[in-house]
Amino acid sequence: MVDFDAAHCERDGEEREGGARERREQRRREVTLLRALPYEPHQRWWDRLAPCAVAVVTGANRGIGFEAARLLARHGLHVVLTSRDAAKGQDAAARILTEAPDEAGVSLEWRQLDLADSASVEAFAAWAVETHGGIHVLVNNAGVNFNKGADNSVEFAEQVIQTNYYGTKRMIDAMIPLMKPSPYGARIVNVSSRLGRVNGRRNRIGDVSLRDRLLNDDCLSEQLIDEMITKFLEQVKQGTWSSNQWPQMYTDYSISKLAVNAYTRLMGRRLSDRPEGQKIYINCFCPGWVKTAMTGWEGNISAEEGADTGVWLALLPQEPSTNGKFFAERREISF
Fold this sequence. Notes:
Number of strands: 8
Structural class: alpha/beta
Number of domains: 2
Distance between the termini: 36 Å
Strand order of the largest sheet: 3-2-1-4-5-6-7-8
Order of helices and strands: HEHEHEHEHEHHHEHEE
Helix content: 40-55%
CATH superfamily of the largest domain: NAD(P)-binding Rossmann-like Domain
Shape: globular
Number of helices: 9
């Protein structure tokens, strides 16, 4: 009976997973059709901003960031493409400008930015104020992942956390004072992952108490998120992390994205009471399993497809209900 029950549960799990995959594929096909629809003039709030809407995309020299920068520029925003590596960033910017159709009117420039370096973020913020007077859209894409395939090393856990979580948080803190007031609200979009879901069926945190606190708005705080990160990194140094109920798939990357997701929810709540004309909407999204260098080119969708939901969030006519949420395939998903 035990063997039968185990096999039955496993089969049920496979069927549920197969059904989820099928639904996701169906949604991908629907989104492909939506992507082909142009924005109507009344939807293009960014065209009504003078002298222009400015969007910053971090880690945009390749992959999802590159596509987000390219798509936003083609939609008519002025894009600041940033990258840590100067040569790669300049090449990426030149490629977008060169490949743009003549009628597209693409406006784009490149700046160096390293989210893991406080001085670099501060210098970028000072430049953004001096050059553009501020920004309207921030897409936090920059991130690292050192695991590929079945690997699950935490050798570079500190670097992953410093870039993916603390770097993202550092950039948000620096850019919020620079967000230009407008009737349409400013936008912050954080690239995240389903691997960072608190209650993900295959990669959840084993500590039930921590899960409950992360999902409870009354308990969620910056201190709670930082304490979770500190505890994980301490256990990495001690070599005890694998026996302490952390996610077992891409562990350091998953925890960094769990922190990004939680921080997005927290900031959505903090920013929700800003007065009209000074609204800032912050959301995160999972691009899916994308064919990029970060996945070792093992994904099942293109970088352009992966960037789509982030670009859609950046351009969406915002309202208070779209704040501090998690999205995938242009739909809200649970944390």
